[in-house]
Task: structure prediction
Amino acid sequence: MEPFYAIGIFLFVLFLLLGSGVWIGLALLGVAYVGMEMFTSRPAGDAMMTVIWRSSSSWSLTALPMFIWMGEILYRTRLSEDMFKGLAPWMGRLPGGLLHTNVAGCTIFAAVSGSSAATLTTVGKMTIPELRKRNYPERLTIGTLAGAATLGLMIPPSLTLIVYGVAINESITKLFIAGVIPGLVLATLFMCYVVTASMVSKDYNPAAEPTLPFWDKVKRSRFLVPVLLLITAVIGSMYLGVATATEAAAIGVIGSLALAAAQGALTAGNFFESLMGATRTSAMIALILAGAAFLSLSMGFTGLPRALAEWIASIELSRFELLMVLLVFYIILGCFLDGISVVVLTIAIVEPMIRQVGIDIIWFGIFIVVVVEMAQITPPIGFNLFVLQGMTGHSMGFIARAAFPMFLIMMLMVLILIAFPELATWLPNNMRQAR
Amino acid sequence: MDGEARIIRRSLDFVYDFAAWLSALCLVAILVVITAQVVARWMGIPFHGSNEYAGYFMAAASFLAFAHTLNRGAHIRVGLLLNALGGRRFWGELWSLAIASAASTYLAWYAVKMVYWSWRLNDVSQGQDVTPLWIAQTPMAVGAVILAILLIDNLVTLLVTGRDNIRDGLAEQSHAE
Amino acid sequence: ASAEKWDMPMAYPATNFHSENAAAFAKCVGEGTGGTLEIVTHAGGSLFGGNDIKRAVQTGQAPIGERLLSAHANENPLYGIDSIPFLATSFDASEKLWAAASDKLKTALDAENLVYVYAVPWPAQGLYMKKDVNSVADLKGVKFRSYNAATARIAELAGMAPVQIEAAELSQALATGVVESFISSGATGVDSKVWEQLTHFYDVQAWLPRNVVFVNKDAWTALDDASKTAITTCGEKAAADGLAKVKELSGGYLKTLEENGMKVSPPSEQLAKELEGFGQTMTDEWLKSAGDDGKAIIEAYRAN
Ligand code: NA
Ligand code: NA
Result:
C-alpha cells in the first residue's frame, strides 16, 4: 500500500502549504521536495533544476507570453467599443436583445485573447455600462458576462490549453483547433439561455432599440473588420498550417500593435504598460509551471501515477464513470484553486489514467477546459467573480448566484462533449488531412 | 527610517525592477526571434537554433521577473485562510514568507550550482545552436537569487515593521486565468 | 547486500520496442540478482525527458538510463559515430561500425562518469518523398525537413530547401505542404500515417542511430560482483534480443507503408551512388572534428 501512503503525505503537505497562503509555485516546490526526500535517495536539488530548466526553456512555452502580450495590447485599444458598435445593431431586435452582445462580444474577443479574465474586462468595460443604461436586468447582464467570458479559455488562443499542451507534450496547434467547435457550441448554448431568460424573467424590460435599415447595419459592421482580420490571421495561419501556435502568437502581437497604431492608441506608455503586464502574467504562470515540473518528477519517483493508473484499470471503471468521477473531483478542486494550478497539479496523475482507458488526449484537453471554465465562476476562489466584483461593486454572493445558470450550462456542455466527442476531434483530425 | 536603510531599500527595489525590465526585453527578443524564424522560412533561408534561442529567452524572461511579479502581488496564492485570520494575519504572513524564503533559497542555491556545473562540464546545447549552457542558464540563476533576496527582504521587513512590501494584486492575478 | 531500487528514465513510450526491451532487461536483472537489485523503468520521459537523461545519470540524479547517444554529438563527435549519413547503411555494416567504435565509446563514457551496458539500433532511416526520385538532381529545391546539423547538411549537399520542423509539428507541416520530404525510419512513417500526405519511401538506410543504456559509475562501483555480472549478462542478452527485434520490425514497417499505398523501394543505382558520395564528404567532415580516435574507428571499420 505504499502508493496510498504516498498520497497521504503528498496531500497533507500540499493542503498545509497551499492552504496557508504560500505562493502556489513555491508551495509545489515544497511538496515535491518532501516527496523526493522521503521516497528516493537521489539528489533532490540537482534533479529539481534539471526538470525546471527543461520546462522553463521550452520552445512551445513561448506562445504563452506572446498571446498574453497580444491581449494586453488589445485591451488598451478601442476594440471593445468598436465591437459593441458593430454588434449592437444586429442584436437589438433579437429576443434577449443586447444581452447577446455579451456572448457575441466574448466569443469574438476570445478568438484573440487567451484568458477568461482579459475577455471579461475588455468586453465588460463596454457592455456593462451600455446595458445598464438601457435598463437590462443586472443579474442577467452580470451572469451572462461571467459565463461567456470563460470562452476566452476554450476558443483559441487559450492559456489553459498552452499549459496543458506543454504538460502532456502534444501539439498546441492541434489543441487550439480542437477548441473551435466546442467553443461555438457553448456560445450557442449561452445565447439560447439569453433568449429563454428574456422570456421567463419578470424583470426583463429593457428600453427598445431603434430599428436601423439593413444597409445601415451592414455599414456599422465595418467596426468589426479589424478584429475579424486579426482573428483570420491568427487562427487561419494555424489552421492552414503556415504557422505554429508560437508563430501565430507572434503574428498576433504584430497585428495588435498595427491595430493599436491605426487607432492612435499605440503610445509609448501603452506599449510599456502592455509589455510589463505581459511580463508579470507570464512570470506568474512560469513559477507555477516550474513548481509543477519538480512535483511531477517527484511523483514519478514515488511510482504514484502509475500505481493509480493501474488501480483504475483494475477496478474497470467505464470511460463514462471515470469522466464523471474526474468531473466531480475537478469541480471541487476548481472551487479552491485557479485553472492553471488545477491543470498542472493533476496532469501527472491523470494523464496515465486517461491514456490507460483509451480516452483521446486532445479531446480530454477540451474536457479539462470546460471544467476550468466552471472553476472561473465558482466561489470561494473564482477569478471571474473577483474581476466582476472589482468592476461592479456587487457582492461575491450576488455574482456567483447570477453566474450559476452558466455553471449548469457548462455541465450540459460536458455531457454534450461526452456524447459527441467528434465536436472536439473532427477539426484537428481534418486539419491534418487537408492538402 | 535612517539614511542607510533608505539607501538599501531603494537599491533593492531598483534591482527588482531592473530585472523585470530585462525580462521585458527578453519578451521582445522572443518576438524578434520568432518573427525572424517565420521570415527566414518564407525566404528559404535556414535560421539554425531559433527554437533554442526562443527557449533561452523564455527562461530568462520568467526568472528575471519572478521577484518584481511577487512584489506586485501577481503571483497566485490561496488567501482564504490569511483573510480569515483577521487580526492575527501577521502570523500567517510570517509563516508563508518563511516557507517561501526557504523554498526560494533552495531554488537559488541549486540554480547557481547548475550553472557552475554546466560551466565545469562544458555542457553545450544538443540543438544546432551549440550554445554553452552556462550562458543560457545564467539569467535563470540570477533571477532565482533575486527572488530569494526579495522574499528574505520581505520576511525581514515584516518582522521589523509589522508589514511586508507585497501589494494586494487580485486584479493582477486574474490576468492569467 | 540489502535490496536496492534503481529508477531508469527512458524517453520513448512504453510500447516502443526499445522500452519493451529495456523492461525485459530490468526483469532479467531482478531475477539474476535474486531481487537484491530492482530496476524500475519509467518510459515516455515520465521521469526525465530524453534531452536530460544523460546528464541526470552522469550526476547521479538517476542511477541508470537510456538515451539516443548521437543526440550528444555536440559534446563529443564520437557520440555521433552511428549517425554519419550514408557511412554504414545496413544492419550488418552498422554492427561492424559499432564494434569498431565500442572501446573508444566506452572510454569516452567512462570519462563522463558513465558505464556502458548495451545498445540497440533503430530501424534504418529512409527518404520520404512525394514524387519519383532517380537521382540527386530530382531532389533539387524540394522542401526538406531538417532537425539537426546532419540533416541540414544533407539538404545543403543535395540542393534541397531545408525547413526546420519539430517532431510534434511534422504531420501538420506535411499536410499543409510546408515540407514535402524528410528522412526518418519506417516506424515514424507508420506512427504518423504518412501515406495521407506522401507517396514514396526510398529505403536508403542513411544511418542506424542507437539507443545506449548506461549506468552511473558511482552506482556501478557500489554494486557487488554478482549484481555487476547480472547487469552485464542481461545487457548482452538485451543487445542481441533488441537487434533481432528491430530487424523483424523494420520489414514490418515497410510492409505497412506499402499496404497503405506507398511506393517502397531501394534507391536507384545512380541515387545510391550519389548518396554514397555524400557519405564520403560527410565522413571526411566528421573526421576533421573527431580527431585521431575518430580516424582509428573509421580505419578499423573500413579494414573489416
Ligand atoms: Na481564447
Ligand atoms: Na472556483
Remarks:
- The pocket of sodium ion (ligand 1) is lined by residues A 110, 113-114, 152, 155-158 (CB under 6 Å).
- Chain A has one domain: 1-432.
- Residues 1-432 of chain A form one domain.
